[in-house]
């Protein structure tokens, strides 16, 4: 987990079909995704969350996630693309998706 409490994630849940925003994940693949973490250690993901294969991230993205963002960042990650957010304590996850599309 890159942003959030130091809990172990015990299970990841999603709806059973794409019609209800369910996600199909491949076994033995590593992912970077956003989602909702419950206090009991269960995580819920849906189609509208950010989901990307870890191997598809470039070196800069991986280094930022594993090293740079860990060093003193206490911002709140926002999972919406609010272009009018100018406060320094918010980080948009869409900055990362922008990197993936360039």
Automatic annotation (TrEMBL):
PROSITE patterns per the UniProt record, alphabetical: NTR, PROKAR_LIPOPROTEIN
Keyword line: Disulfide bond, Metalloenzyme inhibitor, Metalloprotease inhibitor, Protease inhibitor, Secreted
InterPro entries: Netrin_domain, TIMP, TIMP-like_OB-fold, TIMP_C
One Gene Ontology term of the molecular function aspect: metalloendopeptidase inhibitor activity
One GO CC term on file: extracellular matrix
Start and end residues of each NTR domain: 1-73
Compartment list: Secreted
Alphabetical GO biological process terms: negative regulation of membrane protein ectodomain proteolysis; response to cytokine; response to hormone
Keyword Transcription regulation annotated: no
Similarity comment text for this entry: Belongs to the protease inhibitor I35 (TIMP) family.
Name of the protein this chain belongs to: Metalloproteinase inhibitor 2
Organism of derivation: Hucho hucho (huchen)
């Amino acid at each position: 987990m890159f942003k959030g409490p130091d809990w172990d994630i015990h299970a990841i849940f999603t709806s059973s079909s794409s019609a209800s925003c369910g996600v199909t994940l491949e076994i033995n693949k590593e992912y970077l995704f956003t989602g909702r973490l419950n206090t009991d250690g269960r995580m819920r993901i849906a189609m509208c969350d950010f989901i990307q294969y870890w191997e598809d991230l470039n070196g800069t993205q991986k280094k930022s996630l594993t090293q740079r963002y860990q060093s003193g960042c206490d911002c709140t990650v926002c999972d919406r693309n609010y272009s009018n957010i100018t406060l320094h304590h918010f980080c948009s996850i869409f900055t990362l998706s922008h990197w993936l599309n360039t």
